[in-house]
Amino acid sequence: MWHYFAGRRSTINPPTVIPPELVRPGVFIFLGRLQPSAQPDIGLVLDDFDRLLSLYRFVEGEGAFPAISEMAGAFHFSPGCSVKPSATIVSVAARHLDVFLRHNELEAALFNYLQMQHGPESVATEQATGIGTRVDVVVRLGDRYWFYEIKTALSARACIREALAQLLEYSYWPRAQEAERLIIVGEPALDAEASAFLDRLRERFAVPIYYQQFLMDRGSLVE
């Protein structure tokens, strides 16, 4: 999601509620997916159109406000890695910034690492949960699943804070596929306090939550 106003384009951010200061004439707000222009994946385009159709109808005054339950369905594991860009250029405050889409690069690298560990047919990226959400990476181990959520924050604590609620929803929302392990992936190392926090969640609440550091220079997870 990004917006464009007065000749300037914002940074690219996760979809969120439109702030009041952007609700004015002349503001263009984009919600969608980035793909390489030379080789767009038509299947992903159509998938996004399907997901956004109810929102479009609401905006045009032809439908009710879309509820996330309308996108619900069964969990069907679909192995593979969706290709997304790792960099782009945006204009903010009259200066060009290189916006490095680290998340996409981490996701591709994590997929490569996990498919070498478990086989390409056992690993999926952007896996639909069947409840209107998507998991960054899923590993299938027989009839068990491990969910990986990637975060690009500057500390393990911040990565955990951003990912914890998402992983709980992915695994425990009604009709969701429950995961055997919920794994937060970030580049910062896991410190003692963050480790103790996760230990407490596992012991007191029996939540199978873990954190693993990903080393981009090695293309591997730290055990």
Largest sheet geometry: 6 strands, mixed
What helical percentage do the residues reach? 25-40%
Gross morphology is globular
Order of helices and strands: EEEHEEHEEEHEHEE
CATH classification, class level of the largest domain: Alpha Beta
Q: Are there runs of 5+ residues with pLDDT below 50, and where? A: 91-100
How many structural domains?
2
Number of strands: 11
What is the CATH architecture term of the largest domain? 3-Layer(aba) Sandwich
Descriptive account of the structure:
The chain has two domains: 2-100, no CATH class; 102-221, Trna Endonuclease, Chain: A, domain 1, CATH 3.40.1350. It has a six-stranded mixed β-sheet, with helices on both faces. Strand 7 (134-141) and strand 8 (144-150) form a beta hairpin. It is built from four helices and eleven strands, in the order E-E-E-H-E-E-H-E-E-E-H-E-H-E-E. The chain starts with a strand and ends with a strand. The chain has helices at 42-59, 102-118, 156-172, 192-205; strands at 2-5, 8-9, 28-30, 87-92, 95-100, 123-128, 134-141, 144-150, 181-186, 209-215, 220-221. 19% of the residues are buried. Residues 91-100 have low confidence and may be disordered. It is an alpha+beta fold and 223 residues long.
Keywords:
single chain, 223 residues, alpha+beta, 2 domains, 6-stranded mixed sheet, 3-stranded antiparallel sheet, 11 strands, 30% helix, 26% strand
